[in-house]
Design goal:
homodimer; alpha/beta; Aspartate Aminotransferase, domain 2; 2 domains; 17 helices; 17 strands; 2-aminoadipate transaminase activity (chains A, B); pyridoxal phosphate binding (chains A, B); Aminotransferase_I/II_large (chains A, B)
Chain lengths: ~525, ~525
């Protein structure tokens, strides 16, 4: 553990903030200056200052939530489960309650988030991703998109550079554009070898050491944006060893690490082609402690001695995207800057969403503790995360099993990269060398047309690159999701149609093309 | 009605957009280029593209809302009402339903807002504030703060100017700072004469006609930010005649009108000192039609032939702030630009909040229609707005009655400006001329200390100015809210304490001062 204070963080990271930071101050118009020492405040003042509506004017006086005992399974006949419990959001909660009442939830509130939800986020971080310093903090955002766009705003100006993995979640580009600044990509190792997956530390180090040779017109990067676990789109996960190397490189070059981790809790167990439907989660072979200490990948936060990491989590993947709730964890100085950006834009995340999440998680915790006396309350939520991870393992199993049965797969016309976690599977198409020589994009676009005819929507790999040209030679893949299916038949049909499309590619492309495509595929 | 098209609006208003507009494009990575004409799309494709979690993985499968039949009253013994009905948010709604099911509400969704809520906003505008052109549209925001900060982002650069009323909601300043740009204030007529209240059109016209004399270093303003109805902090409302003048001035100088209207629906009936508790709402003397056509002040939208007005509404004051839901109405071109700012930052407002609001309003509409056969569904919501306006009228009556009984009020040491609507009452302190000569701020700060000792929180008027110096001579007032009280005693005590503080001011100030204050009052 290091003993850095908020002031130390200010010294370290203020130089990396956007030049607009100073004018992004927020002070309430109800704050006055220094009060005279003689003043004796009344002990029971009446409130005629800020315009908060009294809670009896809210049209809602109670909310009851039907909470599923278990997430649905792909093989359910109906997506509505019979087993559920009811969680109440009542108007008032006793003082100090871990739950949130409507009188607070529906009112104006602290822009950092409600205390009850902040407490939960701190329990999550303490249990799973505790930093190696004490002065860390969390702030609630209106989902990770909001948090990440605010982090970009906090750090970047038009002359700032952000380092990004060459394949990435493409929305980082508009967030960056919103902030100003430019992007430089870092090479990924897209490999089945778990010890080498993800950012190539040697390439990154070389890039930074010889920055002005590579990028004579760009400032050195202020931050690295990385999806280290269950990377989108490739599904890959950086090993602890890779993370340690990257972390040290970032320390050396004074780079903030923005760790976007939407998928980390959706950790799958390895696929066994001999027992395709095996799922150690479902058989109860994995305890919450195992999940936390052995299954989940360690966050960059757990390596962080310098307050250099900003970890972005979301409740979208394990609870629900429509809640629009996420949180950022980092050193208290930078977190206060994210809060300031809340102050001057969105104010605070939906209190209705916060109350739904808080009260649901508190009840999950109480239920779990009733069966596991010594467990911390947050384990109720982690148990739910495991159930979701289990269902994603099931879904992965279904898709993999179906794909493994396809002739074009057996003939190695295409293959799968096994994701360690997340919602996505990478389907690598083994294009013929002569197709690669002309245009990988054109061949993949042709395949996309075939997929539309055969009836299968997937995402083209090159659409998820920072720079199509730089990454095209590694873009002969499709990203397929396992999240949306409502029936195992979706995977059966999906695999068959994928197979048919690939077979057609190999028989039609360059020989007897059905589609008129330009030299480089689709026109933009 | 004018027949302007989206393209006309583009011609008119693109020149007023921020220079960053072009780089704020958003396109989904699942969009590909132009598809070949030969392609025959499969009619029942399977979905392996975007990562939307299947709805049976959401932990919530139903939400039941207890909806009050009537808002609470100040004289209720308990803020929880006995009379309520239950509104369900079920997992699935039939196609075309006006309600929102959880399968959609908890999912990723359109960044413009859910269709069901957009439909409601269009019903509100069509019923109450219909523009004089057809191609208007609405977009959902995460509350008005979010909407207004996005409008600032959409329009303003560092060299842009925003015109603002000299007294205003002070958070406009951080929104503006977030966007860049500078502020120029326009003089207000703070007068009891309803025909003259609000922005002084002559002063505004003179300012713009002789811009370079007044502001040689600022560009001409792109937009005017105005709280035209129930202005914050003064409670004043611009007459239709004043609005017409302002609108014409804005047309002449090509200025966009940003109409922030959080309080418009909280319209009070005039106070009658002979019958202090009179409330025509409560006695049923006002129909929904009366309220819409006679009581509510007309939005700038209703004058708008050129698509020049962006009206910001919020559900915070009449439903609940914690929902974080607002909407912007304006011409379809500018609304599409607000949507783009959603795309690249917050994405979409809480779906849980949207579902709560939509399903509640749909049920309110159905109930109202059961009793009023020919009424449109939205009248159920308008009826609720009237009930809230009625309660604010009650609250205003209570405070006014208590204040009118105070000796210092009778002696004209202070007076009240009657608000036409909203949550705030302006208490003007009739400072002695010799105090005004030295420092109005110091005298008001002294009064603030006395209020703290006597036990009454209010907001200092000068804290709600754009430029303290410019407006100080009109800043001898306090802003008091009527919204937060939970009991009539709050107003009784508040009035007594206000009285005592003012009496003490007149006996202590400059004579035998208890508090050590600098020459200009509080230090910052």
């Amino acid at each position: 553990m290091t003993q850095l204070t908020v002031n130390d963080f200010k010294q370290l990271y203020q130089p990396l903030l956007s030049k607009y930071d100073k004018q992004r101050q927020f002070s309430s118009f109800t704050d006055v200056g220094e009060l005279p020492p003689e003043l004796q405040r009344h002990k029971t003042p009446v409130w005629l200052a800020n315009g908060q509506p009294f809670e009896s004017l809210f049209p809602i006086q109670e909310i009851d939530l039907q909470i599923r005992e278990n997430p649905g399974s792909l093989i359910d006949e109906t997506p509505i489960s019979g087993k559920y419990s009811t969680t109440k959001i009542q108007m008032y909660e006793p003082k100090g309650s871990s739950k949130l009442g409507l009188s607070d939830a529906l009112q104006y509130s602290d822009t950092k988030g409600h205390t009850q939800l902040l407490n939960i986020t701190k329990q999550i971080i303490s249990r799973i991703s505790k930093p190696k310093y004490d002065e860390w903090d969390t702030v609630i955002t209106c989902g990770s998109s909001d948090g990440l766009s605010k982090i970009c705003k906090m750090l970047l100006d038009e002359d700032s550079t952000l380092l990004v993995e060459e394949f990435t979640y493409p929305n980082i580009l508009p967030w960056l554009n919103y902030a100003g600044g430019s992007i430089v990509q870092v090479k990924l190792n897209v490999t089945p070898d778990p010890s080498k997956q993800g950012i190539d530390p040697e390439a990154m180090s070389e890039l930074l050491e010889n920055w002005s040779d590579h990028h004579p017109n760009e400032n050195k990067p202020k931050a690295l944006y990385t999806i280290a676990t269950g990377h989108n789109p490739t599904g890959l996960t950086q090993s602890l060893e890779v993370r340690e190397k990257i972390y040290n490189i970032c320390c050396k070059h004074n780079i903030i690490i923005i760790e976007d981790d939407p998928y980390g809790y959706l950790q799958m167990t390895p696929y066994d082609s001999k027992d395709p439907m095996a799922n150690p989660y479902a058989t109860g072979d994995i305890s919450v402690d195992d999940y936390v200490s052995k299954i989940l990948s360690p966050s960059y936060l757990t390596l962080d001695t310098e307050g250099r990491v900003l970890r972005c989590e979301t409740f979208s993947k394990v609870a629900a995207p429509g809640l629009r709730l996420g949180f950022v964890t980092g050193n208290a100085y930078l977190i206060s800057k994210v809060k300031t950006l809340n102050d001057i834009s969105t104010r605070f995340a939906s209190g209705a969403s916060q109350a739904i999440l808080v009260n649901m998680l508190v009840d999950m915790g109480a239920k779990y503790q009733a069966e596991h006396k010594s467990a911390p309350a947050i384990d109720g939520w982690i148990d739910w995360c495991m159930k979701i991870a289990s269902e994603y393992t099931n879904r992965r199993n279904h898709l993999f099993k179906c794909v493994h049965e396809q002739p074009a797969f057996k003939e190695k016309k295409f293959e799968l990269i096994e994701p360690s976690c997340g919602m996505f599977v990478t389907v690598v198409v083994n294009l013929k060398p002569e197709w690669k020589k002309t245009s990988i994009k054109r061949a993949m676009d042709y395949l996309y047309c075939l997929l539309l005819e055969e009836g299968c929507f997937a995402v083209l790999g090159y659409k998820m690159t920072v720079d199509e040209k730089f990454s095209m030679e590694r873009s002969n893949f499709l990203r397929c999701t396992i999240s949306k299916a409502n029936d195992p038949k979706v995977f059966e049909l999906g695999a068959q149609r994928l197979n048919k499309a690939v077979e057609r590619l190999f028989s039609e492309y360059g020989v007897n093309e059905k589609f008129t495509l330009g030299k480089n595929g689709f026109k933009k």
